[in-house]
Amino acid sequence: MQVVVPRYPPPRFPNRCVVCGREHPTTTAQLLAQVPTGIRFVFDSYSVTVPCCRRHAIVLHATRLGRSVVLWAVYIGGIVVFVGRASSRAQAGAIGAAAFLLLSLIRAAINRSFRLGFDLEAASGSVTFSFRDLSLGYEFRALNPAAHEPGGLASA
């Protein structure tokens, strides 16, 4: 289930682990998401503290960071290997474009296959929280009056 909330004020979470749903988790996790700005070399970020079990806090951080690091290594390594085999500049461009397309498809497959129990994606004015546990998603939406599900008409 996906729930969209405004970036500010910070959202309220139920006192349950965002991954497994366990009541009264022992710790929290500080999660960071990059916000696309559309301007080169200008970075914005969004940070939120979520309740979760100690083990799930480690898993959330490792999975989110590891996914990014591995995917960038695959991108850079794959393109260097493929473009390095080209004999001309035009062939290098074509091979680079094909490699980028192939690696993008692999990235989409990885993201689809290895979904987290909880994740977030930030935009300029809102944040989309993804919950695998539907009851937790509904509880989160009830705690945040400005929350809504993605899609639909915002204004007519």
TL;DR of this structure?
It is built from three helices and five strands; from the N terminus they run βββααββα.
Account of the 3D structure:
The chain contains three helices and five strands. The chain has one domain (about 1-145). The protein is elongated, with a radius of gyration of 19 Å. The strands form two sheets. It has a three-stranded antiparallel β-sheet. The mean pLDDT is about 85. With about 160 residues, it is an alpha+beta fold. Helix 1 (about 55-85) runs antiparallel to helix 2. The chain starts with a strand and ends in a 13-residue tail after the last helix.
Label this structure with key terms.
single chain, 156 residues, alpha+beta, 3-stranded antiparallel β-sheet, two-stranded antiparallel sheet, 3 helices
DSSP E strands, number: 5
Rg measurement, Å = 19 Å
CA-CA gap between termini: 25 Å
How many helices in DSSP terms?
3
Secondary-structure-derived class: alpha+beta
Largest sheet: 3 strands, antiparallel
Q: What is the total number of structural domains?
A: 1
Question: Strand order across the biggest sheet?
Answer: 1-5-4
β-strand percent reads 15-25%
Query: Helix and strand succession?
Result: EEEHHEEH
Q: Tell me roughly what share of residues is in helical segments.
A: 40-55%
Query: Low-confidence spans: pLDDT under 50, at least 5 residues?
Result: none
